[in-house]
């Protein structure tokens, strides 16, 4: 049986803020400005799955422009130099970092998947039998960015086996 998530939106917001300060805006001049709009558009997304005592997904989604900007900041490059592979690698790493922080707050025994990157809108993502339980929604230099958590409604049948 899956346990109730022990990570709430304020925890997730703190994790996202730490990622922003560490990797995307270390000088503090371009913060993620909250919009609280969970229906904002996206053009690309990445995710990691967590299984074990809690089962769900952590999803990063943004516009393509925000993804290129994130890759440029993450890799210390000029945005004009960023390749599609750089964007994919960065989005996967962002999902992995936030997902790893979420996993660290869960009871022992949880496992984190490899990141999945899809350079298509989040709405094309398929997370069957899940519900969005929280997220951080904002704009970064005018571009939409969100990091959300999805909880599986199906118990993990392998737990305790």
From TrEMBL:
The keyword Nucleus is annotated on this UniProt entry: no
| Family annotation (SUPFAM superfamilies) | CheC-like (SSF103039)
Q: Does the keyword Phosphoprotein apply?
A: no
> Which domain of life does the protein's organism represent?
Bacteria
Sections of the chain in a coiled coil: none
**Classification via InterPro entries:** CheC-like_sf, CheX-like_dom
Alphabetically ordered keywords of this record: Chemotaxis
Q: Which GO terms describe its biological process?
A: chemotaxis
What residues does the Chemotaxis phosphatase CheX-like domain cover?
46-119
What is this protein's record name?
A: Chemotaxis protein CheX
The organism is Actinoplanes lobatus
Q: What is the lineage of its organism?
A: Bacteria, Bacillati, Actinomycetota, Actinomycetes, Micromonosporales
């Amino acid at each position: 049986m899956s346990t109730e998530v022990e990570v709430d939106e304020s925890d997730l917001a703190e994790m996202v803020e730490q990622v922003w300060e560490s990797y995307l805006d270390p000088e503090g001049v371009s913060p993620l400005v909250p919009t609280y709009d969970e229906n904002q558009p996206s053009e690309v997304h990445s995710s990691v799955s967590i299984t074990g005592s809690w089962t769900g997904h952590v999803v990063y989604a943004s516009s393509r422009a925000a993804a290129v900007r994130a890759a440029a900041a993450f890799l210390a490059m000029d945005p004009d130099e960023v390749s599609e592979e750089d964007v994919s690698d960065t989005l996967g790493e962002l999902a992995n970092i936030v997902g790893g922080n979420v996993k660290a707050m869960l009871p022992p025994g949880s496992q984190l998947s490899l990141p999945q990157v899809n350079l298509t809108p989040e709405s094309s993502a398929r997370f069957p039998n899940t519900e969005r339980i929280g997220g951080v929604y904002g704009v970064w230099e005018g571009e939409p960015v969100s990091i959300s958590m999805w909880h599986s409604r199906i118990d993990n049948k392998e737990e305790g086996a």
